[in-house]
Design goal:
Distance between the termini: 19 Å
CATH topology of the largest domain: Rossmann fold
Bound molecules: adenosine-5'-diphosphate, alpha-D-glucopyranose
Helix content: 25-40%
Radius of gyration: 23 Å
Strand content: 15-25%
Number of helices: 19
Strand order of the largest sheet: 3-4-5-2-1-6-7-11-12
Structural class: alpha/beta
CATH superfamily of the largest domain: Glycogen Phosphorylase B
Number of strands: 18
Number of domains: 2
CATH architecture of the largest domain: 3-Layer(aba) Sandwich
Largest sheet: 9 strands, mixed
CATH class of the largest domain: Alpha Beta
């Protein structure tokens, strides 16, 4: 099976969140299942700097684009997975975040940028990119790749198309003037195609035209068919429910392994959990917090956006500071949340520590050093941090939504008794519900043995790609078989 994964992020070339993690580790899992997997990404400045040696694989001309677009060929660092970068300096040679300006606004030409990316992916898919390789399946991920299924839908030689929703809230919506500027077929401006309330919706290309749609957990697959989580697309998703599947993400178990993690002070495992305390002390020192092992440390690593319920944490803080808990937050995103969090840490430097920024290594130290990990997300397609936390014996406190439901088992008298409990559920989106769950966690934390049992039960879960990789392969096979029938 030849699989082309089209994505705007793949760790370590580019990552702003879980999409990067997934597209950096799924290809390796698929290779182990004997797939010939290749990746294609925009040639961002950072990706070009990180990929190492590359060769020019093709030079393509595209209508409406000045000068050639180059396909650079290299490999995903530390793997043998071939990668093509779509190199076109005027659109992709920019610093930092792939979607935002350094001031935090969307790049004004995002429609043009990702439309060009999609056009090149479509050319690769249909054997029109001067490459000696035609995929059986193109696996598109999120709105940045949504035009691909639309562009190739009527092409005889097209591969089967699988479109994965990592986050339905990001849809790639742009005004009609952008639709016109992109030189797309006028037939695509229809509510049965890309038009969505008088805008062009990139994600609709995937939802309408893919042979299979997947999303990153079974629970989110159900949720997005309801008005509450459907972001206006629930009707379309209900229409397509027969091709919609939920596959929970795997994690990179080498990158996130407390027994081998070079970023942390002391490696540990389920059989040496006591060693985790050294990471806690190191983390407390790093943040100038009191070195008191008995006080529970709550960690957070998050994009600072509405989805992640940062405002709920802010609501809960006046009550949280009345407990013994210490709070450590690493995050980047909206300035309003960042400012409010920083104000709290300035007021209470002995209890609340906040680091604004993006820091992969620090994320590892927080996972290893915290006792609990807080994720009060309003919605969460899958979520990776709760799985990293479970693996690190850092008990997750999560909202009862999306993939969090599929990966965390709430502590109840029954689950504690039968040894299946791995975390705590926040029952609704309020600061009070956050505090209820945090208080339950703090209470159990006082009972060291029971607490350790919960942490160890989490560490023993299998979140590797083994099962999920196979599920993807099965979906790819279904998509190929379906396409042949047509
Ligand atoms: P999402 O993709 O919605 O942000 P996930 O839980 O799937 O949520 O994945 C988030 C990923 O991004 C995790 O690997 C997490 O560690 C990482 N991350 C988020 N914010 C930061 C940050 N400020 N610094 C380092 N890593 C971060
Ligand atoms: C998105 C979602 C997150 C998911 C990630 C990877 O960013 O918000 O829940 O884990 O994609 O699929």
């Amino acid at each position: 099976m030849k699989v082309l994964i089209a994505t705007s992020e793949a760790y370590p070339l580019m990552k702003t969140g879980g999409l990067g993690d997934v597209c950096g580790s799924l290809p390796v899992a698929l290779s182990q299942l004997d797939c010939d997997v290749r990746l294609v990404l925009p040639g961002y400045r950072e990706a070009r700097a990180r990929i190492g040696a590359v060769k020019v694989a093709a030079q393509l001309t595209v209508d409406g684009i000045d000068g050639p677009v180059t396909l650079l060929e290299g490999t995903l660092p530390n793997t043998r997975v071939p990668v093509w970068l779509v190199d076109y300096a005027p659109l992709f040679d920019r610093p930092g975040n792939p979607y935002l300006t350094p001031e935090g606004h969307n790049w004004p030409d995002n429609a043009q940028r990702f439309a060009l990316f999609c056009k090149i992916v479509a050319r690769i898919c249909t054997g029109q990119a001067q490459l000696n390789w035609n995929p059986d399946v193109v696996h598109c991920n999120d709105w940045q790749t949504g035009l691909v299924p639309a562009l190739i839908r009527n092409t005889q030689t097209r591969p089967a198309v699988v479109f994965t929703i990592h986050n339905l809230a990001y849809q790639g919506l742009f005004p009609y003037s952008d639709f016109q500027a992109l030189h797309l077929e006028t037939a695509l401006w229809s509510s049965d195609a890309l038009e969505f309330y008088n805008q062009i919706s990139f994600i609709k290309g995937g939802l309408v035209f893919a042979d299979r749609i997947t999303t990153v957990s079974p629970n989110y697959a159900n949720e997005i068919q309801t008005p509450e989580f459907g972001c206006g697309l629930d009707g379309l998703l209900r229409q397509r429910m027969h091709v919609l599947r939920g596959v929970v993400n795997g994690i990179d178990t080498k990158e996130w392994d407390p027994a081998r993690d070079a970023a942390i002070a002391k490696q540990y495992s389920a059989t040496s959990l006591a060693d985790k305390a050294q990471n806690k002390l190191a983390l407390l020192r790093e943040f100038d917090l009191p070195s008191d092992e008995d006080r529970p440390v709550i960690g957070m690593v998050s994009r600072l956006v509405h989805q992640k319920g940062i405002d709920l944490v802010l609501d809960a803080l006046p009550r949280l500071i009345g407990t013994s808990a210490l709070l450590i937050v690493l995050g980047s995103g909206e300035a309003l949340y960042a400012g409010q969090l920083e104000n709290w840490s300035r007021r209470l430097p002995e209890q609340i520590a906040v680091r604004i920024g993006y820091d992969e290594q620090l994320a590892h130290r927080i996972e290893a050093g915290a006792d609990m990990f807080l994720m009060p997300s309003r919605f969460e397609p899958c979520g990776l941090n709760q799985m990293y936390s479970l693996r690190y014996g850092t008990v997750p406190i999560v909202r009862r939504v999306g993939g969090l439901v599929d990966t965390v088992v709430d502590c109840t008298p029954r689950t504690l008794a039968d040894g299946t409990a791995t975390g705590f559920m926040i029952e609704n989106d309020s600061g009070t519900a956050v505090m209820d769950a945090v208080n339950r966690a703090i209470t159990l934390y006082q009972e060291k043995n029971r607490w350790n049992n919960v942490a160890i039960a989490g560490m023993r879960q299998d979140f590797s790609w083994r099962n999920s990789g196979r599920s993807y392969l099965k979906i790819f096979e279904e998509a190929v078989a379906d396409k042949k029938k047509r």
